[in-house]
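The methods section describes the discrete structure representation at length, but only in general terms. What matters is that the chain and its backbone geometry are given together, residue for residue. Nothing conveys this as quickly as seeing an actual entry. For illustration, here is how one protein appears when written out as sequence plus structure tokens:
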Amino acid sequence: MQALLERSTGGGRELPEEVPIALVYDGDTLAVMMATPEDLLDFAAGVTLTEGLSSKPVDADIVHHANGIECRMALDAAGRRAFERRRRLTTGGTSCGTCGVRSLAQAIRMPPSVAGGALRLHARDVNRAVDALRDHQPLHDRTRAAHAAGFFVPGRGLVAVREDVGRHNALDKVIGHGLLSGSLPLSDHVLVVSGRVSFELMQKALSAGIPAVV
């Protein structure tokens, strides 16, 4: 693949890594996602939150196998009930935010209400957020094939960024970072993402209490 890329582009370019990541809870698999194998603790925490399994940080064991990686976690009783409702049946691609869900009710969930609090977002903040995100994408700089999601706070700037070949994965990673760092609720944060904003990205943002998306 690298040789084909060099011939097609007339030069060398690094390829982003993409491997199967299994999200395993109490020995049962919720989903297998194709993702960039970086910031996996953040990824595991973010998926756990955005899938409605737990709003508290969970410990994850990262287990490497010859054909992929497992993120192994444990749930409390409430999380286990939520897991049974959200269990998925298929592998999810990098472009898929709802692959494998078993019903329309699972795919389109009623999002929580999110109040913006004291957040005041001006046009200059939107421009700064977009410019700042683009300046903090080293994986995309090397490959031209990665998405990013970050948190922007007016008056402070960009406070966190995560990258992945999949934009849903990048968002789960930065939300997981916020959860593990104790930053939630994110009522004073603006989420800035690369690529288009689809309904499932908005669901994820609302689940983390984020009031604005750029």
